[in-house]
Structures are given as structure tokens and as C-alpha cells.
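Progress against Task 2.4 (sequence-to-structure conversion) is shown through the following example record, which the project officer requested during the mid-term review.
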Amino acid sequence: MKLGTIIKTFAVSAFMMLSAMPASAQDLLARQAPVDRKMKAVDTMALRILEREEGSAAIAQLYGEWNNKYAHRATLLPDSFKIDLRHFCMPTTSRVLTSSFGPRWGRQHKGLDIKVYHGDTIRAAFDGKIRVVNYEANGYGNYVVIRHNNGLETIYGHMSKHLVAENQIVKAGTPVGLGGTTGRSTGTHLHFETRLCGVALNPALLFDFRNQDVTGDYYMFRSKTYNRDSQLANRTTGKPNAGEFSPAEVTEIPQASVSKNKRSSRVNPKYHKVSKGETLFSIAKKHGMSVDQLCKVNRIGKKAKIRPGQILRYS
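C-alpha cells generated for the chain above:
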């Protein structure tokens, strides 16, 4: 009996110890979790600091000066350069492109035109520093230039109002201005440019406004393949003025060299915002055109469904 009692007592003790082990292990994991979270935060902070240092090195490598006087000044492009597109913000929530990058009206259109309404918030695309806040009557109107930590510079033109100051540090998503139609503009829109070493690159290579996203975590600029990549990006956006443009070309065709025929054929695009109850027929009739013409200029079919708030071009 005595031996049986000892064995029984030992078995119960062993069972209790084994039962307690998972709880102890869980307690240990529970105590370790806050430490892991803190270490993750430290690692993230260290990664951000490293990225900023790499960004500063990239900017120092690409740009030799800091100047608040000019919008852009082309310098020598590297043969290749990796642009970090992470931690971005779309400059506007609009998905409607009204004009692409490339040849337009006898000269080069150096950015994308995105349909916005007066007073819409325009935001910084990436972290960076405001280099220029200015007004240009025959060009950008109210515009802002930001030099970003990833080596890019972005330009936001035709705004109704500035919301930042020169030399201000901004984060991706910081409001920089409000939508408008100042300067050389035929309607309310945002003119958005992306430049590397002062040379305009096709923003469609970096930003997908239709899907409100960037095209990838990184964009590798290569001078040898840029032109082909730019044409492909333009075809993807489906805009009519898509065309070839070499990044080495930084001069525009003088206005005097444009023929009279080309000048007379220019058409300032006009847009109609669809109201509730409107149809393709009623919109076409309102603007003195046929449904076929309306569908052709918007690249849609006659049976296409339109919705209130949709933007249709009618000229």
C-alpha cells in the first residue's frame, strides 16, 4: 500500500508539472510579444532611416544645387536609375485622364492632364521638400515643384491655390494645392509632371491613375529602353495624343514653326458631366452632334452604360 501511494503521488505530481508547462510557455510567449513588437518597430525605424540616407545620397548624386527660381533645368541623365515608388500617394483621386504625355498641338506635352474640379485637393506624391511655389501666367499657372527622396521631382500645375511654402518638408499625401485652371489652361484640370534630372519622364510609367496605384514598387529607368516603355505606357492609358518622345529631347518646337493648318486644326477639348436621367442621345443633341460622334470621341459603344457624374468629352 505504501509503495502504491508513493507511485500514485509521483504520477499526480508529474501530471501537474506536464500540465503546467504549456501555460508557462504561453506566459513566456505573451511576455515576449511586446518585446517583439518593439523590436519590429525599431527595425522599421532603422529601415526608414536607411531609406532616407539612401534617398539623400541619390539626390546628391543627381542634383548639384537647390534653387527656388526655376521650375526645371535639364542636366545629364544617368544611363539607368532605380526609382523607389513605395510609400506613395496619388496626387488626386480622379481617374480621368484628359491628355497624355507626348506630341500635342505641334510640341511636346511634358506631363499628364487629369480631370479635377475647382477646389479639389492636390497631394504630394512622395516624401520630399518643396523647391518652388510660384505662378506662371503663360504656362503652369499656380504651380508647385517637389524634390523627392527617391530622386524624382514632381510638378503640379494650374492649381487655384497654393497650400505649401518653399523649403517646406512634406510627406506623401500632404495637401499642396487646390484644383483650378490658372495659367495656360482650357479647363479645370491638374497638369502633373515627373522629372528626373530636370528631364520629363512619362508619368504613366510610374502612376496608374485609372486604378489609383503605382505601376510597381520600383521603376528602373533605362535610357536605352525608355522610349519604347513610354509608348507602351501611353497605349495602356488609351489617350489620343500618345506618341514617341525621347528623354534626351528637352527643347520644344518653336511656335513659329507650326504650320497654319496645324494651328487651325487645334481643338480645345470640352467636357460634359452626366446628370441623372441623361442618355447618350440627349447629351449628343444638347451639344449639336450625333451619337456616333459622341461615342467615337469617347471611344465607347452606342450601348455603353453611362452613370451620373461620369465625364464625357464632346469636342
